[in-house]
C-alpha cells in the first residue's frame, strides 16, 4: 500500500513533464522593418571597375577588340561605353573616333602614334586628368576635339593648328597655358563653360591668334570682369553664371560681328552698365536676366530679343527707349521701325498693362512677358 502511494505521484510528474515538452512554443515574429539596401559603390581604381567589353574578332584585321568597326570602317571607330580604362591602339585609317562614357584617366602618345588621319575625337565623360604633351601635335588633320565632363585642370598643350572645335566644358580647369591658342587661326568654337576660371587665369593676350573664333563660351566660371581682347570676329559670347559686376565702356566697339551676348546670372547693376554700351548695330539677342538692374538699358533698334526677367526694374518708359519720336515714324518704312520682337520682363516689380508708348514704338513685338 505504501509502495503504490509513493509511486503514483512520481508517475504523474513524469507524465506532466512529457506533455509540457510536447507543447508548441511560440516562435518570435520576424521584424517588419526591412534593412536598407546599400547604394551601389562607385568603382574604385583599379580592381572594382567592370571588365572591359571585348567584341568578337572583326572582319577588319586592324580593328581593336575593344571597339566596334561598322561596315563603314575605317570612316568611324566606335569604342564608347565599353568600360575601357585606357585607349587602345588606334589604326592609322580611322577618321572618327568615339571613346566617350568610359573610365579612361590618361591620354598617351602610344595610343595615337599611327592615327594621323583622325579628324574627330570624342572623349566626353571619362576621368581624364592628364594628357601627354605630344599627343595632339601628331594629329595634323584633327578638326574636332571633345573632352567634356572629365577631370582636366588645364587646357591641353600643343593642340593641332587646324582644329575647328574645342569643347572642354565640365572640367576642373583653372589654367590656360600661355600661347596655347597662338597658332589656332582656324578655331571657330571654344567651349570652356562650367570650369573654375578666374580673371587671373585669362591673361590679356590669351585669345590672341584666334582670328576666326565665332563662339566663346565662358559661362559657369568665377569671372568678376569681362574677358579682355576677345577676338574681333566673335559672333556669340556666353558669360552666364559668373560674378561680373561691370562692363567697360566701348567693350563691344571693335566686335564687328557680335550678335548674341549672354550675361544672365551675374552681379550687374545700372552703375556697372555704361549708358550706350549695348547700342551695337549687329546685336540681335541680349540676355541680362537674373541681375540687379533697376532700369531698362538703352539698346540698338536692330535688337530682336531682350531678356530682362528677374531684375529690380520698377518702371519701363517706352518714350525713353524708343530710338525715334513715335509720331515721326513712317509705319510703312520697315527700315526705320525698331526690330524688337521678344521682350521678357517678368520677375521684376512691374504690373500689367504694357505701357502704350512701348506698343506704339516697338511695332514688331510678337511677345512681351511682364
From TrEMBL:
**Segments of this protein annotated with the region Disordered:** 27-51
Q: Which InterPro entries match?
A: Leu-rich_rpt, Leu-rich_rpt_typical-subtyp, LRR_dom_sf, LRRNT, SLRP
Signal peptide span per the entry?
1-21
Q: Which SMART domains match?
A: LRR_BAC (SM00364), LRR_TYP (SM00369), LRRNT (SM00013)
Gene Ontology CC terms, in alphabetical order: extracellular space
Q: Which Pfam families match?
A: LRR_8
Q: Where is the LRRNT domain?
A: 62-96
In the record, the note on similarity to other proteins reads:
Belongs to the small leucine-rich proteoglycan (SLRP) family. SLRP class II subfamily.
Q: What is this protein called?
A: Proline and arginine rich end leucine rich repeat protein
Q: Which species is the source of this protein? A: Scleropages formosus
The gene designation is PRELP
Amino acid at each position: 500500500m505504501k509502495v503504490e502511494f509513493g509511486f503514483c505521484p512520481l508517475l504523474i510528474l513524469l507524465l506532466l513533464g512529457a506533455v509540457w515538452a510536447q507543447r508548441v512554443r511560440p516562435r518570435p515574429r520576424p521584424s517588419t522593418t526591412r534593412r536598407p539596401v546599400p547604394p551601389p559603390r562607385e568603382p574604385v581604381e583599379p580592381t572594382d571597375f567592370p571588365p572591359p567589353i571585348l567584341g568578337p574578332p572583326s572582319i577588319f584585321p586592324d580593328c581593336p577588340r575593344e571597339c566596334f568597326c561598322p561596315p563603314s570602317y575605317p570612316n568611324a571607330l566606335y569604342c564608347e561605353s565599353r568600360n575601357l580604362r585606357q585607349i587602345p591602339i588606334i589604326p592609322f585609317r580611322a577618321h572618327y573616333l568615339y571613346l566617350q562614357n568610359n573610365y579612361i584617366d590618361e591620354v598617351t602618345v602610344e595610343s595615337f602614334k599611327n592615327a594621323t588621319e583622325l579628324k574627330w575625337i570624342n572623349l566626353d565623360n571619362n576621368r581624364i586628368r592628364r594628357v601627354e604633351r605630344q599627343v595632339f601635335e601628331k594629329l595634323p588633320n584633327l578638326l574636332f576635339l571633345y573632352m567634356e565632363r572629365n577631370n582636366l585642370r588645364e587646357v591641353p598643350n600643343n593642340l593641332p593648328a587646324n582644329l575647328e572645335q574645342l569643347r572642354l566644358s565640365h572640367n576642373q580647369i583653372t589654367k590656360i597655358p600661355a600661347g596655347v591658342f597662338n597658332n589656332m587661326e582656324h578655331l571657330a568654337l571654344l567651349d570652356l563653360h562650367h570650369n573654375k576660371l578666374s580673371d587671373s587665369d585669362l591673361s590679356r593676350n590669351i585669345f590672341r591668334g584666334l582670328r576666326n573664333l565665332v563662339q566663346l563660351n565662358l559661362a559657369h566660371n568665377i569671372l568678376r570682369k569681362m574677358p579682355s581682347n576677345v577676338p574681333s570676329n566673335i559672333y556669340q559670347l556666353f558669360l552666364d553664371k559668373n560674378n561680373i559686376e561691370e562692363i567697360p565702356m566701348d567693350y563691344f566697339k571693335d566686335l564687328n560681328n557680335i550678335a548674341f551676348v549672354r550675361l544672365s546670372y551675374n552681379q550687374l547693376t545700372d552703375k556697372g552698365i555704361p549708358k550706350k554700351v549695348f547700342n551695337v548695330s549687329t546685336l540681335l539677342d541680349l540676355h541680362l536676366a537674373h541681375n540687379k538692374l533697376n532700369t531698362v538699358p538703352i539698346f540698338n533698334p536692330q535688337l530682336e530679343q531682350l531678356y530682362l526677367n528677374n531684375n529690380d526694374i520698377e518702371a519701363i518708359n517706352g518714350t525713353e527707349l524708343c530710338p525715334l519720336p513715335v509720331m515721326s515714324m513712317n509705319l510703312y518704312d520697315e527700315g526705320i521701325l525698331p526690330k524688337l520682337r521678344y521682350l521678357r520682363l517678368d520677375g521684376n516689380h512691374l504690373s500689367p498693362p504694357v505701357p502704350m508708348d512701348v506698343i506704339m514704338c516697338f511695332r514688331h513685338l510678337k511677345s512681351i512677358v511682364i
